[in-house]
Design brief:
Length: 117
């Protein structure tokens, strides 16, 4: 397993960037949080704890209560790489989250983002 720089980045340092990206496109922090809850199983309190602890992405995903079983339905390109073809499980989880935030910023409906329709 390759050791990527992002694995050691604090989730708390990237989280505001997710929110900023969404808000620039007139989406909300609440929608970003909903995506994170859906993907990882965190709730409001446990997400806040992870942010307050400034855990890195490795810890953030290792401690995720339950990755959503529908996550493999997330398809597409992030950073020039198809998320469904990423071999490293941690990198794939990170890119799943990136892809969902991208979809939010592009104006997709939450039902589609959360793979409900």
């Amino acid at each position: 397993m390759a050791d990527h720089k992002i694995f050691h980045m604090s989730f708390a340092s990237v989280y505001p960037l997710y929110i900023k990206k969404a808000e620039r496109k007139l989406r909300t922090k609440e929608e970003v949080d909903t995506i994170i809850y859906w993907l990882t199983g965190y709730d409001e309190e446990s997400l806040k704890q992870q942010i307050d602890r400034a855990v890195d992405f490795t810890t953030f995903f290792a401690e995720a209560p339950k990755m959503n079983e529908a996550a493999p339905l997330i398809k597409g390109v992030v950073c020039g790489v198809r998320v469904e073809e990423i071999d490293d499980p941690l990198m794939q989880k990170i890119r799943y989250l990136d892809k969902l935030i991208d979809e939010l910023a592009k104006g997709k409906k939450m039902e589609k983002i959360l793979r409900k329709a």
